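Now for one record:
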Amino acid sequence: MRVITNTADLEAICQEWAEQPFVAVDTEFMRETTYWPKLCLIQAAATGVEGVIDPLAEGLDLAPFMTLMANRNVLKVFHAARQDLEIFLKLGTTLPHPVFDTQIAAMACGYGDTVAYDALVQQVLKRRLDKSSRFTDWSRRPLSENQLAYALADVTHLHDLYPKMHDKLERENRLSWLDEEHANLLNPDIYDTTPENAWERLKLRKTTADYVLGLQVAAAWRERQAQLRDVPRGRVVKDEALYEIAELRPKNASDFDRMRAVPRGFGNSRGAQELIQALERAFNDPDRAVYKHERLPPLPSGLGPTVELLKVLLRFEAERHQVAPRLIASAADVEAIAASDDANVAALRGWRRQVFGERALALKHGKLALKLKDGKVSVDDA
């Protein structure tokens, strides 16, 4: 097993990986007590070239590996890639590209919705994974041989998974089905940690301009505190506290004492004073942007039965094509199709229209019939 702890060895193995058409990649990290993920290990495997990189090794420069991640001639294969990509984006300046996510591919292969890695390995490769080191502390050194073997096994299995899944999708002309999902995964906006945008992750409980402004300010304040202190957001204050702050808009320390979700004594902290000042500046700013809630038009009355029939059809087509329903259409897509033949939704474009959209429109206009016989749904031309 090659364990990489110095830059020269990393450069050498990255040159070997760069000569391969694809490389399977995984990471081990810790973030239970931090805001920023602490990268503890990188595993990568290509045909005949496997290695474990120790990013905590003194003096190790990860630049050669980041160059590999940016190499467009080498496909990077991940499973449930989002957190790995977030880490690499923070380490470098761009997201790894191109990528293939086996969890996304599993939906198009008929292995289920957001299938777990061990379940996918068992279904495709007929192998059982060793889970003995799953909850290990990857930040502690030295790592044992068992830990390193466990970590490397993740990418060796992943390396074997990719060709089988790729070939299956290619045979069934489904590789293009993943393009939109992978494009979404590589959208830098989903990894944005700008404090001013933090409120967008929260569900609005009210849509009045003052309430939303208070929530925007409180969420941005919490995000900065979490980043500066490198602690999870909830360690600063819980989401529930942000909603109370937005509602009550505290102006002094004692105002915090009336809030159930704010920790006792918080009003006397330096952070509370900074938050009060931030709220005051925002509400006194004559040029502040005023939030206007854009309500989606309500569904026309009487569409409920149509929506339910379309959902049955979606499930039927998903099972018939052996693909996860979520990859074809969302609940919002189905409602939009029920309301309009020209709905601007993915389910009425490209491969999704062929698999579901056309038949959904046919069902809606009585040109298709759903039948139930012996407990099974069938579809007939009307």
DSSP finds 16 helices and eight strands in the chain. The chain has three domains: 3-191, 195-284, 304-381. The two ends are 63 Å apart (CA to CA).
